[in-house]
Amino acid sequence: MRSIRRRTGALLAAAIALAGLAAPVGISMAGRAGAGASAPAAPSPEPAGAECRTAVRGSRVVTYCHNPYPSTDRVQLHTECRRWWDIDADATPVDVGPGRTVRLDDRCWKEVGSAWVTHRVRDASPDRPA
Predict the structure, then answer these.
(1) Is 48 in a helix, a strand, or coil?
(2) Nearest to 102 by CA among 49, 41, 50
């Protein structure tokens, strides 16, 4: 009878030790599995903004911007001239409405150093302020 009690006690102690080692791993796995399910997904922003194609020929810069999205995009062409004495320019900002294409151009006296377009997207939803 004593050997059965010893064996049962040893098995019970081994089971408790095994459960004590496995519990933190199980809790960690359950936390990882439940983290994605319980938290709501962050809303992804809707695509917006005009696509612009810029061409530099000699001292002239021409950009065509097309906006395929339902929000209005305000675009502005910036031109940096290569010569230190040549004046850099920022064109007047232009609104590109949904489905519209605009042409922006600028020039330097001599060579163009670089040209880029900046964007400021305004939401198309009427319930949100622009």
Answers:
(1) coil
(2) 50
Rounded CA gap, 120 and 95, in Å?
A: 9
Q: Which residues pair with 107 in a beta bridge?
A: 60
Per-position b or e across 11-44, b if 16+ CB within 10 A of its CB: eeeeeeeeeeeeeeeeeeeeeeeeeeeeeeeeee
Residue from 62, 117, 72, 63 nearest 99 by CA: 72
Tens of pLDDT, residues 81-115 = 999 998 888 999 999 999 999 999 999 999 999 99
Task: Report the candidate in 118, 117, 101, 114 with the shortest Cα–Cα distance to residue 56.
Answer: 114
104, β-bridge pairs: 63
The pTM of this model reads: 0.60
C-alpha closest to that of 82 among 105, 64, 109, 57: 109
8 A C-beta contact, residue 54 and residue 117: yes
